[in-house]
Structures are given as structure tokens and as C-alpha cells.
Amino acid sequence: MSAPLINRRVLFARKQDARFVEEPVEERALREREILGKTVVSLISTGSERGGYMDYNDNMAYPQVTGYAAVLEVVDTGSAVTRVKKGDLFYASTPHALYSQVSEEEILPVPSGLAPERAVFCRFPAVSMSSIIPMTVRPTEPVLVTGLGLVGLMCSQVLQNFGYDVYAVDPVQKRRDYAKKCGILHPVAEIADVPGMAGKFGAAFDCSGDETGIYACADSLRQGGELFLVGVPWRKTTSMDGHGLLLKIFYGFLHVHSGWEWNLPRKSGPFLPDSHDHSLNKSLQWIAEGKLQVDGIALVRDPADCGEVYREIGDNVLQNEASCVLFDWRSY
């Protein structure tokens, strides 16, 4: 009789307390279309998971499982699984855990030859694609992206792939350097560094979640422009009030949209080709084809170091070093 599998996972035990914990894998037969996978790599966005760790508004429930982007190797499958077999790699939006059980409907097989540490990035271009796909502004107009964390960096690349002239703003030099390395043509520290563009942008995507970024976007749009709030506004960061922003929206005839990634349906259907799943597939395709650059933008860490990693994220240390953190699970 084989020994039971021991799972390891990253857990927020309480506010600002990340732990690497062990627990037995649930012993049960897999459902017909279920897959047991062993995680190879999982990816942290230094913005998205920060809110759950920091609990800025004291409204989080703990303990809290975290993470939502991983590449896993198939350990076992249910009897009706057809898309993957034992030993194959697949992407899934599973948490930071050594083992996960997931439905076949919720996976993307990783193309042959694509490294798992590249494939795992496919989740993050899909975040902004939920805003880009319904946008009415066409590629004949310039667009603005504020915030070059992982989501903003991917947003900028996706927009360029669609043919837009993209101006990407971030005050952190290292982030602008990453953007340039990824092929972004106009990374700047502030919009003032692009003379003559104020009031010329057809659309703006704030990926920072910061009031200053949102105000800058509103100032930069043409009349009737579109403003997408992609970054999560986890906390108040300035003393700015909302009245000035309301004036810009009202008299600028601006269209303001939530950038919530689930604005699109999870799956495509008849007459509805666009979906979150479709965006993930397109992102994975573009990464495999080299149309989305992801190499060298992540720090690689052992998941056992999660306490230190999340502390550095909360203290704004890692944001100045890399766009994200990759947990490598291959030693477990």
C-alpha cells in the first residue's frame, strides 16, 4: 500500500502572516473528468495578492488560500479525461499548492516545447483583455497604460499586438526597463515626458489602482475617451478627493469602465466567441509564438520562503526588483 501524498501549500494564516503548511492530500477517487496535478511552478502578481496579505480594510477572512496561476504535471486522471494524460503539463488557475485536483474543463494543455515558467504567465494578459476586447477605440488612436506591474506590462504588450500605439507610464525605472526589454516602444516616467499628448489619448488603462494614476488617465483622455480601471484600488494612497475626478468625467464626456477580469463569460458559446477561456488560450498562443515577452521579468523563489516573499511584497521591496515572483515547486 502506497504512502498517502503530502500536500504543501501557501496559506495566509492571518493578516500579514504567510505560512508554508503541510497536510495530507484528500484520499478519494477522482471524478470522471477530474485531474490530479502536481505543481511545477506558480506565479504571484505583486499587486493582486498583496491585498489579501495586507488586509488594508480589515475585512478579510482567515485562514486564506492564495494564488491563481500555476502549471502542473498530470499525476492521475479520471476515466473520461481526454485532453491530457499522465506526465503532460497543463495550466490551471489553482492556488499555490504542491497538489491540486481540477476539472478537465478548467485546464489548458501546455504546447509541446513551451517551458512551464513561460506558460504560467498566460493568466495575466487575460486580465486586461476583458477590457480591451469590448473597447470601442480603434488602433488609429494612441492609448495610455499607467502602472507597469505584471498586469500593466502584459496589458501594454497585448495592446501593441492589436496594433495600438501604446504609451506606458511608471515612476520606477526598473519597471520601465522591463517594459522596454519586452518591446514596449514608449515607456515613460510620467505623461509629462510625452509632450503634446495631453488630451489626445482615445483610451487609458489604469493598472496601478492608485488615485494619482487614475487622475492622470482622466487628464490625458480626449473628449468621449474611455477609462478602464484594471488595477484593484486596495487602499487610499493620496489626499485627493473625488470631486475633481467627477468634473473631469462629466465635462470630458468620459466613459469609465470597471476592469474586472470576469466581465467576459468564462466560456465561449454560440454567437459569443470572446470569453475568459478564449483570452487564456490566445495569451498562451502568443507566449509560445514569442509575441508576448515574459523572460527575465520574475524573481524565482522557493515556496517555503513565502513568509519572507510576502513581507517584501507588503513592504514594497520586491516591486522595485521585478514584476512578479515565480514559486518553483520542482524540489518537492
TrEMBL record:
What are the protein's GO molecular function terms?
metal ion binding; oxidoreductase activity
User: Which residue range or ranges hold the Alcohol dehydrogenase-like C-terminal domain?
Assistant: 151-246
Judging by the UniProt lineage, the source's domain of life is: Bacteria
State whether keyword tRNA processing applies.
Answer: no
* Cofactor(s) for this UniProt protein: Zn(2+)
Could you say which protein family the record assigns here?
A: Belongs to the zinc-containing alcohol dehydrogenase family.
Q: Does the keyword Protease apply?
A: no
Keyword annotations of the record? Metal-binding, Oxidoreductase, Zinc
This one is known as Threonine dehydrogenase-like Zn-dependent dehydrogenase
